[in-house]
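Residues pack. One example:


***
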Amino acid sequence: MSHEIALRGITLRVRALHAGHGDRAILRGLDLDVAEGEVCAVMGVSGAGKTTVLRVVAALQPFSSGTVEISGVALQPGAVPPESQLRALRRRVGVVFQSHALFEHLTAIENVMLAPVHALGQSRASAEATAMRLLESLGVSARANAYPRELSGGEAQRVAIARALAPDPQLLLMDEPTSALDPARRAALGESVRALAAQGRGLLIVTHDAAFARSYADRVVVLSHGAIAEEGQANQVLTHPTHDATRELLS
């Protein structure tokens, strides 16, 4: 499937990024851009560095060298700054974790309201109105007062997306969003992803799901040993791979 992208600028720009765990190098000089209105899928076999990219961009993990810029906010190599210094970043970047990571003691709507109230200083009334609008747009407003344990996997994921969107970020990061979804839920997620891109957001999605990426991503970046092995238009790369890393992924 091809998509027309209204490219109005670059939401994420990564240059010469190096990161690792201890003495083990994971990302080795990565260059990556995500444009406004673009869905970019990051793929690769396990251990290629996909999730590390998301964690660095979300300031959940340090990096040793290179540059990371998200809509004018730059991250610096070295230790991750304290949360008090990351408010500008948190307004620009939303994260949907693979495990959803909803707070079990809060209802769906309270989960979505959390960042606007406590991190951005919005009134509860304003945050609640925004949260209900987001839940409604994602088809789960009827579950607003349910606790995470009462939600299905698909419902929990949509609540997690609403929570990530509550600060109105320019960049949305998603980690393996289709891992626990049946085909109908995967299609619904794909349509939600396209709708978010149509609003001008950039989306960076880590996935093993080649069928999902082929149908809903604009561009695919295939990682191998912490660097880009192949990238290009999603359908082209995933239908006619030119690199062994992509062939291995698809096999």
